[in-house]
Write a structure and sequence with these properties.
The protein is an all-alpha fold. Helix content is 80%, strand content 0%. It is built from seven helices and no strands. The chain has helices at 2-5, 8-33, 37-64, 72-101, 105-119, 126-140, 144-170. The two termini are 19 Å apart.
Length: 182
């Protein structure tokens, strides 16, 4: 199994690149979805596909590189690395978007949605509206690199959490030899 671990980084990079490309294509739908609800719905649906894609890649790694068996820890480390490489690739697209394309579009859209919601609030919701306004003002103060680093750290964090069930489903122990007593 030690010889298979040498391939861990190589295949995590490869599958992380595939996953990162998917995340970039999916991210394109997010700003468009703020004005076209169907695209936001599609973005959410594709986001739900991410853990299944990760499981598919871990299973491919297990079957083609590890000889059909993989421990939980090995599968978890591979999955975390895969999510990390995907987050690194996606962070490049995030930076380019927030530095050169966005120009405050996402925050302005959120602010207009909040203003429309504020006109029709229920009694007692004023506190929550103020908290959301404060959060928007804090987000406006962030630079594109700070937004990018925040999104990248979130992707790695959530990926490491999603790696736990993925590794549990992907792990496979070698068959037990009943004839030899093991």
């Amino acid at each position: 199994m030690t010889e298979n671990r040498g391939y861990l980084q190589r295949y995590a990079m490869l599958f992380g690149t595939y996953l990162g490309g998917f995340w970039i294509l999916k991210f394109i739908l997010f700003p468009l979805g703020l004005t076209v609800p169907f695209l936001l719905f599609l973005f959410g649906g594709l986001t739900l596909c991410v853990p299944f894609m990760a499981y598919y890649y871990v299973r491919m790694y297990r079957n083609h590189v590890c000889g059909g068996t993989i421990s939980f820890l090995h599968a978890w480390i591979f999955t975390v690395f895969m999510y990390m490489f995907a987050a690194l690739l996606t962070s490049v697209a995030h930076y380019i978007y927030f530095r050169f394309t966005d120009q405050g579009f996402i925050l302005n859209t959120y602010e207009s949605l909040l203003n429309n919601f504020e006109a029709n609030i229920l009694p007692g919701m004023e506190i929550y509206i103020e908290q959301l306004k404060d959060a928007l003002s804090v987000m406006r103060s962030l630079s594109p690199i700070e937004i990018t680093m925040q999104l990248m750290s979130q992707n790695v964090f959530y990926g490491s959490l999603l790696a736990i069930p993925t590794a549990l489903f992907a792990m496979k122990r070698p068959p037990v030899d009943h004839i030899g007593g093991r």
